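thread: overnight batch results

M.L. [08:02]
morning all. the overnight job finished for the chain we discussed friday. pasting input first so we're all looking at the same thing
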Amino acid sequence: MNDDIMSMPVDPVVTTAGKELATDASATGKKRILVIKLSALGDVILAMGPFAAIRAAHPDAHITVLTTRPFVDLMKASGFFDAIAIDRRPKLTNLREVFALRRFLRNGNFDRVYDLQTSDRSGFYYKLFWPSPKPEWSGIARGCSHPHANPERDSMHALDRIFDQLGYAGISKVPVPVLAGPDIDLDRFGIRSPFVLICPGGAPHRPAKRWPAERFGLLAKKLADYRLTPVLIGTDKESDVLGKIDAMCPKARNLMGRTGFLDIASLGARSVLAIGNDTGPMHIAAAAGAPSIVLFSRESDPKLSAPRGIGDNAVSTVRESDLRELTVNRVMEEVRRRLDLDE
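M.L. [08:03]
and the structure it wrote out:
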């Protein structure tokens, strides 16, 4: 995608082959569907199953997803969409950009919209069709044709909430999220099997969701004692955390800044276990098939937001109100249970 696309408040819709998409419905004669999923990483991964269900419900339709730039590669790799539109989420007070967004929505000639974001922002997008006729709309926008009217929706797990929403729109068969990355050469990363994927980072503005780096370092050393290679993933912004763990466990492989979302999926699929904080990469690992242990604090509730994996008991959670109080031994107990290791 070129700089012209980046310069627009709502990027031109592009096909997965990179060509600009014609918005004239008469060009194909197909039913036109729009799916809205803007963020965040964990929620995008949880939506992979619902994406599959929407495609199965509309096998012959032309389906566009409206998302944000970080998730374009994930949307392409999913194979569920004919086109991807990149929403730069303009400030709603910026009338010029809002009108550009409105043109995209109205010119798309969409027959139905599945709003899987169900936020105030995406609800506002429903209003932008006025005074033109509004498409069928699944979501929580006031006055929409297929409202998710379950009064318990806010107390449901994020994925169960989407399952229920799609049920109100006539889609009853929704699979769990599955994410497949490309074939990966472990030698490229210097990884020896068997290995455990460790995700010690998290949102910088929510430090209470992070288990201390020193605890991850001690955990990595214990894993290495079992001849399991600790593989550390994270961004350059997490260099302090990754560096501390790396220094404490020389047998660890530090892949800081070297793994995109699809690389994490590939690594997750090859790992014997994934361990990490309540953060987006753990959703990727679980959806890729990694048996997963996710660490939760009082800052988030696993009943509402825990990753969902493939098969029964794919994901286990360890929760401590203050993660600084969570001991390495307690986490190792869960590791030994999951991997059937002797003490």
